[in-house]
Design a protein that fits this description.
Number of helices: 10
CATH architecture of the largest domain: 2-Layer Sandwich
Shape: globular
Largest sheet: 6 strands, mixed
CATH superfamily of the largest domain: Ribonuclease H-like superfamily/Ribonuclease H
Oligomer: single chain
Radius of gyration: 24 Å
Strand order of the largest sheet: 2-5-4-3-6-7
Length: about 325
Amino acid sequence: MTDQQLNFGFDPAGVPMTRTVKSGVRSPKTPKPVFAADPETLARELERHPDYRVLRRLVPQLHFDGVPQGKIVKLLVLDTETTGLDPSRDKIIELAMLRVNVDSASGLPTGDVEVYDGLEDPGMPISQEIETITGISSAMVKGLRLDEARIAALLHGADLVVAHNAAFDRPFVEARLPQFQTLPWACSFADIDWKQEGQGSAKLEFLVMAQGRFYDAHRAEVDCHALLAVLQAKLPVSRQTGLGRVLAAAQSPGYRLQATAAPFDAKDLLKARGYRWNAEGKVWHTLLADEALLQAECDWLKTAVYGNRAARVQVEKLDARVKFSGRAGELSLRQL
């Protein structure tokens, strides 16, 4: 999708400027807009009106002046563009990463940002649908390969990889570059409760707009810059930065709880609570962020689903090294 910036031209009296064109005479080219004042002055003036909000183009930030007060975490912000949605058959066509140091005490970035953005020929035609979304064509990537040496250099010493939909990006990059399997991952989409933080959507474009910015989405590098801009800001309710929140999420395991042998007539109740149906395992399951939520959910299952009857449910412990990968975590059974 492409965002377009609206240009407003006003004369000193506040009257929109017009051009007179003689009938039958075509202008050789569209003239550039003329402003009586610089655009930022016009934007601030428009913002004073209660019926308008102004969006400014997001400018990538490559250096942060903050002085760290605690331990430095070496973080990789990552995004991919691919030929489709299935990592077992689709391929990466663009991979971008930002390597940034984060002060664990403040949850703020510090120092310089290292950038990598590479295109790769997937060995298959890029569909018109994907080209329309990403702007990447088969001709653009023909014969190109990701710079594996540069990627390995950025991975060296990294403490955490963050993506805005890690369950999508992680399987793709691990299939292409297995060294990503050894790193812990966090997901800024799943690890932050954006609804609880007062946001109407967890989509990256919406979160950027909530900060009064816009950007040309669906290219990997600019998506990374947009995500870093969102995560360095304090969350509206908790007042913790997004970076601080994903760092904390990576330190504690999550859990996948399976409602083993749940009664058939409980399916609507489970679905309404957010459980998903695993057709292969024939079981309803849900993800919980920590041990306290896991225990509360087990208590709910015991009363609402199993009617206080004796039951055992399967619990899968997921630490940051397996979360969002599709690989199994540590399995156990819990008596309700």
